[in-house]
Amino acid sequence: MRRCSPIECSSSASESSSGKSDYTRSDSDADDDVESDTDVTDVDAFTDKNDDEDNDDSEDSQDDDEDEDDEDDDACLSPNEDLPPEYYLQQLENFDEQEYTKQDYKDSTTRLIDRMEDQWNQCWTYLNKEPYRNFATVSIASLNTFFDWMLSQRRVKRGRRRRGTKHVSSLGTYWKVFRLVYERATGEKIDGKMNRSMRKVLRKLAKKHSLTKIGREKTCMYVEDLGQVLRTNLATTEKKYPHGRCRIQVQLFLQLAGFTANRPQAILGLRYRHIQCSAKTE
């Protein structure tokens, strides 16, 4: 093997170093070329362009939705050919709320209310005190005068003789009917203070016109008393009936009377067809 001289070794070393530098330089040049081809500003510009296109598409779709909503609103507000706006405006102006807010009574009760109101008007026409016909001016004095005048009447409107009022209970019924007249005319009930004061007035008028009581005063029947009567009717034979069915019917009527004490016609109008039966299985 031949050894190289110092000059040859140095020259070969310089060549190797020069070759290494060329390799390194070529890599750096390649990196520079890549960096120049992929600039960051180009990526941002591309992204901004896509975002602008997406925003334009969303704005266009939103505008289309708003246009559709406007068309729907216009369709709802468009007048109907069969029912013009004047039809509903006329209903609004001519609607009678009193027809739906007034109290509903039976025909017999309505006749009593109308008759009492007619007598109220006749009283103040006879006394030549027209302002007192207004129910807003009702007072204890005017009520005392009216009922005193009504109890003193001996002739009806057509000149026929009137039977007259003989019992205290009838005067109490007149007062109850008048309260309904007042409520129908004003839409409000007579206050409790005036109602309590009228009890004294009615007792005084009953004594003045010699009204009598029918028998002794009836006592109140409470739920406990009703329960005792029902037990006695079922568990004993103190009361005899021609048929066992009558005992059960009386049992039913007594219980219904507890709910309809002031409406006897509700029991008198009860028929077998109103009874509904159902079978319950366990």
Automatic annotation (TrEMBL):
It comes from the Eukaryota. Pfam families: DUF3435. Residues 1-83 are annotated as: Disordered. Residues 10-21 have a biased composition (Low complexity). Residues 29-42, 50-75 have a biased composition (Acidic residues). This is Uncharacterized protein. It comes from Lentithecium fluviatile CBS 122367.
